[in-house]
Amino acid sequence: MLGLTTDEPGGAAAELERRRRAPAQRAQHLLHSHPALSPAIILLLTCVAFTLLNDRFAAPAALSLLIQQTAIVAALAIGQTLIILTAGIDLSVGAIAVGSSMLAAMLAAEQGVPAPIALVIGVAAGLAAGGLNGLLVTRVGLPPFIVTLGTLSVFTAVVLIYTGGQSVPGADLPDLLSWTGTTFPIGDFRLTYGVVIVALMYVVVGWALSRTAWGRHVYAVGDDSDAARLAGIRVNRVLFSVYAVAGLIYGLAAWVLIGRAGAASPNAIADANLESITAVVIGGTSLFGGRGGILGTLLGALIVQSFAVGLSLAGVDDQYRLLAVGVLVIAAVSVDQWIRRVRA
Amino acid sequence: MTTTRIPVLAARGLVKTFGRVVGLDGVDVDVYAGEVLAVIGDNGAGKSTLIKCLTGALVPDAGTITADGAEVAFRRPQDARDAGIETVYQTLAVAPALDVASNLYLGREERRPGILGSVFRMLDTPGMRSRAEKAVRDLGIDTIQNITQPVESLSGGQRQAVAVARAAAFGSRIVVLDEPTAALGVKESNQVLALIERLRENGLGVILVSHNMPHVWQVANRIHIQRLGRSAGVITPSSHTMAEGVAIMTGAAAA
Ligand SMILES: Nc1ncnc2c1ncn2[C@@H]1O[C@H](COP(=O)(O)OP(=O)(O)OP(=O)(O)O)[C@@H](O)[C@H]1O
Ligand SMILES: [Mg+2]
User: Fold this and answer.
1) A102, A166 in Cβ contact below 8 A?
2) Within 13 Å and on the Cβ side, how many CA atoms surround B69?
3) What's the pLDDT tens digit per position in A298-316?
4) Closest Cα in chain A, distance from residue B204 (Å)
């Protein structure tokens, strides 16, 4: 009898603790199996809040602008996501995209190369630059951070030397290169062909990541590259392909960039590296690799841009956008750390 | 063992060094079809290094490996796999975030038939799941219940079962197991031992690394004793007792 009464509080306390923890654990598991869920909730809350502050936020004009402004970072962030999924990082994103855009623009505007050929060469240069990163990571075995820090400077310098720091004004550009900036209406919305290209890139890469063996290998390599190698995956081949595909994506994003800016400038998208990494991280992809996906990245890019649009509509200073994005990044990484603790 | 038979896998004079550490110092080993060769030895004796050299996970500094009498050079695990050799490494080599079925098919994914598979490279996820489920059931491994569960949510023993299932399901010539029962309970260990015996009955060669002497004496046909990077002899469960085997293993006696 005495034994029973002393036992009871412990049992009850354990039961209470279990009940208290259960919802948190369930949330943890849910976020764990659906990494795009938290950015989706945040985007929803953001949009609701900004609409309450100023109902012009939800108007087609503002949303069209939001989508058009998000397109370039969203495109670059696809490549960044692939690389971060393999536990790498790419600091040369912006340099490659700017290099591709300048090469295509200069070839067409100054060398008189036919526009389609100039475009293909520009995009191929992005592929080659990504491939160079991939070679340095896999063949030389350098950490991705160091490789892309180096190529960031190299590519930036090469572009400045090649262009002499000069922009190519829109008037000199052939129609094909600035075609991506052409708008067309969908209902009350106005989208650009660049937005369509970016959307297609999301569909194709999303398919490759979730439906093909290559995608599965990208996750396995990022998760544990030693285990992936022992399981028979050609780790270096997968890594190289990821950097090359990322370069190709930056090359295509360069085309969208020319259309959006209406010109090609060697000083465009100076913040591309940090903005693309921010989108990936807020989108729930783990910097440790093997976890996340591009749906989250798209949501992450939209969240950042909706802060920019929403705060300016609310008449708030731009510094507060930086503040909010910074807080979001830290919160997103904290959530990732928490989710990663789900182990049996 | 009869000497006229050609070993399904054999190695001569394997050497592997890691800087100044000598992992393997000239090791010979033979495995025949339809036998279980156990490998025993103290910690650091070179058992895992031997396994890795035989299965392409490490490239030996010197020595030759032959499969069915023909010399082979495994540069990577995939090469050994293509030769019908499946391995459960001591570290298990599973991808934690992927589910059980994806892990079973890791590196040999199957695609959808028709244009979806050939052009769009689409994985046959439902097909792989149902075949993985059947394979796990047929192997008698009942610790794995949900094939769609991510491996990181499994216990250590369950993960080991996944690795064993993968090797047993796909091995066509040789199955190599580096301490496959280390994290398993009594019942699960017995399931793996029964599985090993079944693989042998099906004519496969099995290499079993284990610290569990009763297990070794229960299933092995021959026992390769590894000591300080060298082979200290090959015995059989009938020629030597467990105590004699352990004495050779620790250097207290010669083979
Ligand atoms: N990658 C490596 N780098 C350096 N030394 C290594 C490496 N792998 C193995 N060794 C060394 O080689 C020797 C043999 O190691 P091995 O892992 O083969 O031992 P083992 O017999 O499998 O031991 P255990 O029973 O603990 O698994 C040890 O001295 C070990 O320190
Ligand atoms: Mg070992």
Assistant:
1) no
2) 3
3) 999 999 999 888 988 888 8
4) 20
Confirm if A339 and A32 have CB atoms less than 8 A apart.
Answer: yes
Atom number of ligand 1 nearest to Cα B50: 18
3-class DSSP assignment, residue B3:
coil
Q: How many CB atoms lie within 10 A of CB B238?
A: 8
**Ligand 2 center to B48 CA (angstroms):** 4
Predicted-complex ipTM score: 0.90
CATH classification number, A37-342, choose in 1.20.1080, 1.10.3470, 1.10.150, 3.40.30: 1.10.3470
Structure tokens that stand for A197 in this block? 């290209």
Render pLDDT for B208-225 as a digit per residue (tens, 0 to 9): 999 999 999 999 999 999
Q: Does domain B1-84+173-255 have CATH number 3.30.1840.10?
A: no
Q: Which residues of B touch A (CB under 8 A)?
A: 57, 76-78, 81, 87, 89, 91-98, 102-103, 106-109, 111, 120-123, 150, 152-155
CB contact under 8 A, A216 and B109: yes
| Helices assigned H by DSSP within A164-293 | 175-178, 193-211, 213-223, 225-230, 235-261, 272-282
- Quick check: A222 and A290 in contact, CB under 8 A? yes
Domain ranges in chain B are: 1-84+173-255, 95-170
